[in-house]
């Protein structure tokens, strides 16, 4: 494997792409240390010391939020905008038409996503600035507006950075920025475990168990992420002007985890909302509801699992067009052996998709509550492992490696294929 990685650098174009990606990572990491003007960093650190309410956002931003730097909001407004646009494809005919227009339609959708990102980023920045007003040195409306504009500009710059990586680097730029933020927290987590061991808070056996669970979960996630149900497809022979064509066999790969990490983000956002509101208002019943929805509480865990399963089915139904799949098969002379083309094929594919989505939703729910189980099994607190972070890191790593392999194969270079 090490020799294969070394062989990557022998391809000039691939070497340039990887170097460009690493430079963009360096710019991203430098930006996480540039503070927003007019904010007291000590007050922000105290807020996180009292309970990391925004732990997921801080994780995505590579620690930029806990420092309240210009990249504090990370790329999450862009992710939210992209999800919203994808969901609106179902109800807005124009967006649906653009999705069928190939590259030209993709450009239009991307442009709308950018505009929506700016709007969502500004609204989120205003909310964060007002919510964290106690940490602002001079919380006047003008200063709050300046801070909001600075945070919005940081998100827009990261969006541009991600697009540059996608165009000139390796892999999907937006995903890689999130990946870099999560991986950047790894040294801090290792340092936390080291200090626990030095202080005698945990034993070496606990550290060994933690490492063992971590390795096992990475292997498990890789296995499931690569899991597909392959539906066999046969094509009828057709006689054309240039002779007979068709008559071959293929398959439809239905992914087990079709929804990816989106259901976990949806569920955590919904459950985080009342807890977030309770931090800034003094209404007794809101405080009571928020106390039951704190991370790790039985009610919160139950709702979390239920919502993940629901959103997995919902998002899969929105993104996977079973009827279009069956119609395209019929149009090009394809059929599933033993199943009639048309509606019977759609019903069969829907039945199979429903069954494997159940497995995928249970997998996502298990991964989401994994941090609780790891903490209980090893007694290591304050080290975030599992859930969204694990899925993103493994998914982005697999996607990037596949793209590198594709580039190598295109140049008839063996590299990773040995």
UniProtKB/TrEMBL annotation:
The superkingdom listed in its UniProt entry is Bacteria
UniProt GO BP: intracellular protein transmembrane transport; protein targeting; protein transport by the Sec complex
* Localisation per UniProt entry: Cell membrane; Membrane
Membrane-related topology note: Multi-pass membrane protein
The answer to keyword DNA damage applying to this record is no
Question: Which segments cross the bilayer?
Answer: 68-92, 112-136, 142-161, 173-196, 202-224, 259-281, 301-322, 356-377, 383-401
> Pfam families from the xrefs?
SecY
The Gene Ontology CC terms held by the record are: plasma membrane
The UniProt record lists the keyword Transmembrane helix: yes
Q: Which InterPro entries match?
A: SecY (IPR026593), SecY/SEC61-alpha (IPR002208), SecY_CS (IPR030659), SecY_dom_sf (IPR023201)
Q: Which UniProt keywords apply?
A: Cell membrane, Membrane, Protein transport, Translocation, Transmembrane, Transmembrane helix, Transport
Assembly notes: Component of the Sec protein translocase complex. Heterotrimer consisting of SecY, SecE and SecG subunits. The heterotrimers can form oligomers, although 1 heterotrimer is thought to be able to translocate proteins. Interacts with the ribosome. Interacts with SecDF, and other proteins may be involved. Interacts with SecA.
Family to which the UniProt record says this protein belongs: Belongs to the SecY/SEC61-alpha family.
State its role: The central subunit of the protein translocation channel SecYEG. Consists of two halves formed by TMs 1-5 and 6-10. These two domains form a lateral gate at the front which open onto the bilayer between TMs 2 and 7, and are clamped together by SecE at the back. The channel is closed by both a pore ring composed of hydrophobic SecY resides and a short helix (helix 2A) on the extracellular side of the membrane which forms a plug. The plug probably moves laterally to allow the channel to open. The ring and the pore may move independently.
Designated name of the protein: Protein translocase subunit SecY
From the broadest rank down, the organism's phylogenetic lineage runs:
Bacteria, Bacillati, Bacillota, Negativicutes, Selenomonadales
Gene (name only): secY
């Amino acid at each position: 494997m090490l020799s294969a990685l070394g062989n990557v650098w022998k391809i000039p174009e691939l070497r340039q792409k990887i170097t460009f990606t690493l430079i963009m990572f360096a710019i991203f990491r430098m930006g996480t240390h540039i503070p927003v003007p007019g904010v007291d960093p000590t007050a922000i650190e105290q807020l996180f010391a009292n309970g990391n309410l925004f732990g997921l956002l801080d994780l995505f931003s590579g620690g930029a939020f806990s420092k309240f730097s210009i990249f504090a909001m990370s790329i999450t407004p862009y992710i939210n905008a992209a999800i919203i646009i994808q969901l609106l494809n179902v109800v807005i005919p124009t967006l649906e038409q653009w999705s069928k227009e190939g590259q030209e339609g993709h450009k239009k959708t991307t442009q709308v996503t950018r505009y929506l990102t700016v709007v969502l980023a500004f609204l989120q920045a205003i909310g964060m600035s007002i919510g964290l007003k106690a940490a602002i040195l001079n919380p006047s409306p003008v200063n709050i507006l300046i801070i909001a504009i600075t945070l919005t500009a940081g998100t827009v710059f990261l969006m541009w950075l991600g697009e540059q990586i996608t165009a000139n680097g390796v892999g999907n730029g937006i995903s890689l920025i999130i990946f870099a933020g999560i991986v950047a927290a790894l040294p801090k987590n290792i340092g936390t475990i080291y200090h626990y061991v030095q202080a005698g808070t945990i034993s070496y056996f606990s550290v060994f168990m933690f490492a063992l669970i971590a390795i096992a979960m990475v292997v498990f996630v890789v296995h499931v992420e690569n899991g597909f149900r392959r539906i066999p497809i046969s094509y009828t022979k057709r006689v054309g002007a240039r002779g007979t064509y068709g008559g071959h066999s293929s398959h439809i790969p239905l992914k087990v985890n079709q929804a990816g990490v989106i259901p976990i983000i949806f569920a955590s956002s919904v459950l985080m909302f009342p807890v977030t509101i309770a931090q800034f208002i003094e209404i007794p019943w809101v405080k009571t509801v928020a106390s039951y929805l704190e991370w790790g509480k039985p009610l919160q865990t139950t709702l979390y699992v239920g919502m993940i399963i629901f959103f997995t089915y919902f998002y899969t139904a929105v993104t996977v067009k079973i009827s279009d799949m069956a119609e395209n098969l019929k149009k090009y002379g394809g059929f599933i052996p033993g199943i009639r083309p048309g509606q019977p094929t759609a019903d069969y594919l829907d039945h199979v998709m429903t069954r494997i989505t159940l497995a995928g939703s249970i997998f996502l729910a298990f991964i989401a509550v994994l941090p609780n189980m790891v903490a209980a099994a090893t007694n290591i607190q304050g080290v975030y492992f599992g859930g969204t972070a694990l899925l993103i890191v493994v998914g982005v790593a697999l996607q990037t490696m596949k793209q590198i392999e594709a580039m190598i194969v295109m140049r008839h270079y063996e590299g990773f294929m040995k």
